[in-house]
Amino acid sequence: MLKGKTVVLGIESTAHTFGCGIVDEDGKILADVRDTYVPEKGGKHPREAAQHHSNVSAEIVAKALREAGITINDVDAIAVALGPGLGPCLRAGAVIARALAIHYSKPLVPVNHAVAHIEIGKLLTGAKDPLVVYVSGGNTLIAAFSGGRYRVFGETLDIALGNCLDVFAREAGLAPPYVVKGMHVVDLCAEKGSKIIDLPYVVKGEDLSYSGLLTAALKKLTEGNEKLEDICLSFRENAYNMLIEASERALAHTRKKEVLLTGGVAASPILQNKLKLMVKEHNASLHVTPKKYAGDNGVMIAWTGLLMFKYGITIESEKAFVNQRWRLDEVDIPWMK
Amino acid sequence: MDEIGLKILHLISKGAEAHIYKATYLGYDVVYKKRVPKPYRPPEFDRSLRIRRTINEARMLYYMRKFGIPAPTLFDYDLSETSITMEYVEGEVLERLLRRKPSKEFIENMFLKVGEILGKIHLNSIAHGDFTTSNIIVVNNEEPVIIDFGLSKRTNDIEEYAIDLHLMFRSLESTHYDIVEISKENVLKGYINVVGKDFAIKIYNKVLEIRRRGRYVRERKKK
């Protein structure tokens, strides 16, 4: 059934999700298996997440192969996310990817996690050359293709939007769980708010700063003079509108005709709606990575690995070191003109 | 006020936050910059943000003139319209001009001046807040004039000054990646000329610190 078609197996382990995906060169998803580390309470400790990844990795890869109905012999290359991300987590993925590559004599393809979010979004939404708004627990990035690479036009100067929302939710006693019925708990709580309180709104060019907003919102919580619902509403409006404004500046600057929203926070219907309104004003179209693939997964690593493999980009296993701070704009993108 | 002198002629461009019109005011050629409501923001939130920025920009244009920094002269502002009327600066936006691949000498000279102007802005306790090649108009193919002061502020916080340099570097890296080194070098050279070496080093170290703070940056490794 796979005669003549290139098949790549991808491994993702940059943060709290260990995922294994298998795709063919037509972009057909043959397998998508993942397991997410969920702490019983509080935040995620990188070392505990890494331990989780090591425990489940062999089983997840085996399960993915079964799901695809193939054996490792049918796989043409192993792709692995070597960064950016949390060191211990990255290493857990790199270990199994290197082992598979060496043991089965398969080429190893080093994939940048951020590039993978963009490429899976393009594959699944049909966007060709979008302005990318990538928002997750660890990333807040506005980028676009120019001169052979994805260039960063704006990003957070401190914490990521997802992290900002999660920490606030946790401190306010709204989480965990962070997402209820497909909505972030901050979004849910904000729906019941009616008053907008003055909080820091910090846009610097196309860059953003969320730490001041988080601190001020937490202070409002402890002061206890405002309703939690109003604080949530004000906090969310500031956080989202800052991102939309920076994106709008980048869109006006790059004159792209498509916007791709991706990353874990992309699932927020409130954020999607705001972005849709902004994009319309610039006669551009909005593309949102389907929820299932907006968060971290192995499929995006497999697909990006496949694009790279087609251009002969591989790495020797001995040199496949993880790179916690591997920037998006350091990666050549030969498949775009 | 309108009937006294303002006559709007035509739309020049639609920016991210404002519509820019060519107009005349008391017989002068002017730019009429109107901050427009954004449908994605709640109305009261939107309005207070636009008013804040309009007041801010008008005030900053006044300071620029007072301190002798090349920027459009303020003619008028109107908070009910969230609009500003300012001198029309005839020239070309630096970002677009650079696309025509000017000579090495031109680039060196231009960014040297840009660095000097930024130094002068900072010496007067102001941070621009959006200091990029898109917010510089080049007059007579040689003199840079700074525009767009909506995000500017009066401050003595060196972090804000460092962010100006960071934003200029970022715009060079994202949009003018073929001339990053020579343009950066000359911005710094011009900046040092005005603020002095000690202060410039302090700001530059802050730029590196800000970049280290970003989650996944190369610079952090040097720590």
Give an overview in words:
The complex is a heterodimer of chains A (337) and B (223). Chain A has two domains: 7-118 and 295-330, ATPase, nucleotide binding domain (Nucleotidyltransferase, domain 5, 2-Layer Sandwich); 121-293, ATPase, nucleotide binding domain (Nucleotidyltransferase, domain 5). Helix content of chain A is 42%, strand content 21%. Chain A is built from ten helices and 14 strands. In chain A, the strands form four sheets. In chain A, strands 3-2-1-4-5 form a five-stranded mixed beta sheet, with helices on both faces. In chain A, strands 8-7-6-13-14 form a five-stranded mixed beta sheet, sandwiched between helices. In chain A, strands 9-10 form a two-stranded antiparallel ribbon. In chain A, helix 1 runs parallel beside helix 2. The radius of gyration of chain A is 20 Å and the shape is globular. Chain B is α+β, with helices and mostly antiparallel strands. Helices cover 45% and strands 22% of the residues of chain B. In chain B, the strands form three sheets. Chain B has a five-stranded antiparallel beta sheet, with helices on one face. In chain B, strand 8 (136-139) and strand 9 form a beta hairpin. In chain B, helix 3 runs parallel beside helix 5 (180-195), helix 4 (158-175) crosses helix 6 (197-213) and helix 5 crosses helix 6 (197-213). Classes of the chains: A alpha/beta (337), B alpha+beta (223). Chains A and B meet through strand 8, strand 11, helix 7 and helix 8 of A and helix 1 and helix 4 of B.
Overall tally of domains of chain A: 2
Overall geometry of chain B: globular
Distance between termini of chain B? 57 Å
Distance between the termini of chain A: 32 Å
How are the strands of the largest sheet of chain B arranged?
1-2-3-5-4
Task: Give the strand content of chain A.
Answer: 15-25%
Number of strands of chain A: 14
> What's the total helix number of chain A?
10
Contiguous low-pLDDT stretches of chain B (5 residues minimum) are 216-223
Spell the H/E element sequence of chain B.
Answer: EEEHEEEHHEEEEHHH
